[in-house]
Each structure stands twice: as structure tokens, then as C-alpha cells.
Amino acid sequence: MKFLGYTNFAFVVFLVSFHSLSACSQSESEDHEFNYDEGTGRGPSRWGTLKPEWRTCSDGRKQSPIDIGTVQVNSELGELQRNYRSAQAILRNRTEDVAVVWSEDAGNITINGTTYRVDNCHWHSPSEHTINGTRFPLEIHIVHRSPQNKTAVVGILYRYGMPDFFILSISPFILSLRTEDQNLGFINPERIGFPGSSYYRYNGSLTTPPCSENVIWTVFRQVFSLTLLPDMYIFYFYICGTLNEE
Ligand SMILES: *[C@@H]1O[C@H](CO)[C@@H](O)[C@H](O)[C@H]1NC(C)=O
Ligand SMILES: *[C@@H]1O[C@H](CO)[C@@H](O)[C@H](O)[C@H]1NC(C)=O
Ligand SMILES: *[C@@H]1O[C@H](CO)[C@@H](O)[C@H](O)[C@H]1NC(C)=O
Ligand SMILES: *[C@@H]1O[C@H](CO)[C@@H](O)[C@H](O)[C@H]1NC(C)=O
Ligand SMILES: *[C@@H]1O[C@H](CO)[C@@H](O)[C@H](O)[C@H]1NC(C)=O
Ligand SMILES: *[C@@H]1O[C@H](CO)[C@@H](O)[C@H](O)[C@H]1NC(C)=O
């Protein structure tokens, strides 16, 4: 099983590296509303000025991401229970990222008595949250919404190491993604896995415009690992601008 995984993995990485070069140069879309490249005047420090409804990006007082370790994180927001199930999902090119979006009810998490249904997961490279100043190569955000449309996001960081099974399993779809949604079939969010049972919890915001606040963040203390040849992989979650940010 493991050997098979590795063989497929090497193959996928080869294709990814070949494909991503063209994907990235094409994605420099001038008219995209916001991006991660400060040089374009539409980078993160300008988001709050681009549209009146994005003002929170610069005026907000509880903005995410944060550096965990230097900012006080509240550990009294309650437990995290998950109750996921398999449901139809698609892979979507949202221009600023690639997201797995569930089109049916794929279950939920419960935090302090409120149930939030899973909506999508997507990646940021490099990580947005840092731990005591350390930035990681990749971060997954699993986004959930309550019936009152309150948002709860679970964040997990990745370091370099062994391949990640969930990413590996959707790689072929990522490779063939252009602008049309790709049907992923049934995906159980459980497959992403939660690393360990210890996490940081704080009250923050969406990390992209409109940067809305009152978002409950759960960031796992333990990190996932991510492949051999990681740079090529990360490149594929492509946000080409973010890679130059550091
Ligand atoms: C950050 O570093 C300080 C000082 O070394 C340590 O006490 C603290 O536990 C660290 N925090 C995290 C989240 O690792
Ligand atoms: C948890 O829920 C209880 C009851 O709904 C509420 O009183 C309390 O403020 C909540 N705590 C937090 C930290 O959200
Ligand atoms: C949470 O998801 C489970 C299945 O994963 C479902 O049975 C349950 O009804 C859901 N809870 C709510 C409050 O939607
Ligand atoms: C729910 O909140 C999200 C994020 O703040 C927003 O994009 C979406 O439009 C909201 N949906 C509804 C039905 O209000
Ligand atoms: C994703 O969509 C954007 C335009 O919305 C396009 O520029 C980019 O090339 C697409 N990505 C891929 C991998 O085709
Ligand atoms: C989180 O912060 C918002 C303001 O951004 C506040 O309205 C809300 O009550 C806070 N929620 C909790 C659970 O502390």
C-alpha cells in the first residue's frame, strides 16, 4: 500500500512540476479583485482600501491570521466535536486559491453548543498562521458555517516530511483543473484527518476580503506533513504572489 502510494506520488509530482509552470504564468490576471502581490497595489496591505465593504481588512480589531505564541489565544471557547460524512464535492478554481467545495451536506463540527456545517477546504502557501514566528510551507483551512451563517475555521499547518494522503488523493483532479469545476465524487471530510486533540482557539476573522470578524478559529498544535519535492507541490496551490511574500 505504502509503496504503491509512493510510486503514484512520484509520478504526480513530475506532472505537477511540468504543468504548474504554465498554470502560474497564466494566472497573473490583472483584473482579479485582490491578490497577494504588494507590487500590484492589490496586495494584503491595500485590501481594506479597494472596496468600501472590505474596510474591515484594515480597520478590523480581531483580524486573522495571527502569530500563535505572541498573541494570547483563548482556550476557553469549548470543545471541538466532529461529525462528518461522505458527500458530493467539486474542486473549484477560485482564482486566488483551489478549493474542495461540498455541494451536499458533508456533516459538521460542534463548538460550544453551536453546530457548523462544513462548506469547503482550501490551502494557503506559505502558511498564514505562524507559531512563535515560524511560518510553515502550507496550511489547510476547513471552513464551516452555522445556520446563522457564523463561520468556524479549522486550520492545520504542514511541515516537510511524508506525503499527505488527502492531497495525494485529489492530485489528479488538481492537475486537470482549469477554470471549470471538477467533479470529485463523494469525499468524506474525515479523510483530511485532524492531527491530535490539542489546538489553539481564538476569535478572529476571514483571512481574505471582506475579512469579516467573529470567526472562530481552531488551529491544531500538531502539524501535518507534506512530501518530498515539496516546493513543486506547494507551487501548485499556486497563489503565485504569496510565494514571493517572505
Ligand atoms: C513560544 O515561545 C515561548 C518562549 O520560548 C514558549 O513559552 C511558548 O510556549 C511558545 N508558544 C508556542 C505556541 O509554542
Ligand atoms: C459558550 O456558550 C455559552 C452558552 O451558550 C455562553 O454563555 C458562553 O459565552 C460561550 N462561551 C464562549 C467562549 O463562546
Ligand atoms: C451533523 O452531521 C451529522 C452527519 O454527519 C448529521 O447526522 C447531523 O444531523 C448533523 N447535525 C446538524 C445539527 O445538522
Ligand atoms: C455567509 O457568510 C459568508 C462569509 O462571511 C458570506 O460570503 C456569505 O455571503 C454569507 N451567506 C449568507 C447567506 O448570508
Ligand atoms: C484559474 O482561473 C484563473 C482565472 O479565473 C486562470 O487565470 C487560471 O489559469 C486558472 N488556473 C488553472 C490552473 O487553469
Ligand atoms: C468574537 O469577536 C466579535 C467581534 O469581532 C464579538 O462580537 C463576539 O462576541 C466574539 N465572540 C466570542 C465567542 O467571544
From TrEMBL:
Keyword hit for Isomerase: no
Superkingdom of origin: Eukaryota
Cofactors required: Zn(2+)
Pfam families noted in UniProt: Carb_anhydrase (PF00194)
Matches recorded under CDD domains: alpha_CA_prokaryotic_like (cd03124)
Localization annotation: Plastid, Chloroplast stroma
EC class (word): lyase
The Alpha-carbonic anhydrase domain, residue ranges: 32-246
Signal peptide interval: 1-23
Record EC number: 4.2.1.1
GO biological process, any: one-carbon metabolic process
Family per record: Belongs to the alpha-class carbonic anhydrase family.
UniProt name for this protein: Carbonic anhydrase
Source organism: Gossypium australe
